[in-house]
Amino acid sequence: MHVNADFATRVVIRPEDRQWIASPAGGVERVMLDRIGDEVARATSLVRWAPGTTFHRHQHWSGEEILVLDGVFQDEHGAYPAGSWLRSPHGSQHTPFSDTGCLIYVKTGHLPPGR
Fold first, then answer.
1. Residue 108: left if φ>0, alpha if ψ -120 to 50, beta else—which one?
2. Can you list the domains of the chain with their CATH numbers?
């Protein structure tokens, strides 16, 4: 899958243009801002969690960055309120969830190897 994959082209997605798409986990939806790949991808997304939702345990082969925009994002390592930024290295794993619901900005698959 390729979404806004030409990094030489300017892209603007306004709030009214967002297309929320269901993820593999019920209650978790995302807006694909850019993506190269399928479920494991180099991707930038907005992800919206309904209260009480959990996403299956998974591994990030090329790292992950998260900025919590609203609510509280959680995993087995802690709880992260709005304004929190997380960077997880290559090979990191977690089981994310949100008891109260949240909105996060996520980048995956973009960290250079060995850094």
1. beta
2. 2-7+17-108 (2.60.120.10)
* Coil vs helix vs strand at 55: coil
Three-state secondary-structure class, residue 52 = coil
Residue that has been written with the tokens 């309904």 in this structure = 50
Interval 69-87 mean pLDDT:
96
- Please indicate, yes or no, whether the overall pTM of this predicted structure exceeds 0.90: no
**CB neighbour class for 108 (10 Å; exposed up to 12, middle 13-18, buried from 19):** buried
Question: CA-to-CA distance for 58 and 81, rounded, in angstroms?
Answer: 22
Pairing of strands 85-88, 78-81: unpaired
The owner of tokens 């930038």 is 44
8 A C-beta contact, residue 33 and residue 46: yes
pLDDT tens string 27-45: 999 999 988 866 666 789 9
